[in-house]
């Protein structure tokens, strides 16, 4: 079998979007520690509006990792926090398509990104697998259906902890959480949480090829 990731409209869309991300605007420079406080004071929605043209996509390696987790676990429900233009969502959708089972719930604040991604998903033939929830993940992810087997956390980093605690009651033993950009100082409370055995995870940090790391945590 040739996977949906390797050939066909999803593979083509991923390639096209990575090329667009390369030539598009980049997110602003990383903030110095003093600036971070000022940055946090700006609302979640304001920062999303400022980043409306930036892709900020996961790496292809992280995409392939997510694909593999979903193929292995065959979860009924996959959740993504932070869709942007949907590169990561296409990796998730490739796996759900190849499993012939499951559904993806993803969430995004930027209306511009939502409109573009929904068109991409339909053009790539995976629109039927993806529910796009418009709005703040802390509201939109409160009542999604099904047992959540795989989660990608890739929205604003200081929200990883409130978002995962929101989903936990629907995450069975064995559910896997992939948290992107674990090197971000804003992720410290999340990392403390998933690395404390009392909170019911086994967690490992994996270095990427750039200066990025992902934290992979499984529910035990
Ligand atoms: C790093 S980008 C996501 C990249 C995407 N996962 C990919 O790999 O293509 C983060 C996105 O999360 C969105 N976001 C941030 N906070 C959010 C929130 N509270 N609710 C919904 N979306 C949010 C931002 O608007 C931004 O588009």
TrEMBL record:
<feature type="region of interest" description="Disordered">
    <location>
        <begin position="21"/>
        <end position="41"/>
    </location>
</feature>
<dbReference type="GO" id="GO:0032259">
    <property type="term" value="P:methylation"/>
</dbReference>
<dbReference type="InterPro" id="IPR029063">
    <property type="entry name" value="SAM-dependent_MTases_sf"/>
</dbReference>
<feature type="compositionally biased region" description="Basic and acidic residues">
    <location>
        <begin position="32"/>
        <end position="41"/>
    </location>
</feature>
<keyword id="KW-0489">Methyltransferase</keyword>
<dbReference type="GO" id="GO:0008168">
    <property type="term" value="F:methyltransferase activity"/>
</dbReference>
<protein>
    <submittedName>
        <fullName>Methyltransferase</fullName>
    </submittedName>
</protein>
<keyword id="KW-0808">Transferase</keyword>
<dbReference type="InterPro" id="IPR002935">
    <property type="entry name" value="SAM_O-MeTrfase"/>
</dbReference>
<keyword id="KW-0949">S-adenosyl-L-methionine</keyword>
<dbReference type="Pfam" id="PF13578">
    <property type="entry name" value="Methyltransf_24"/>
</dbReference>
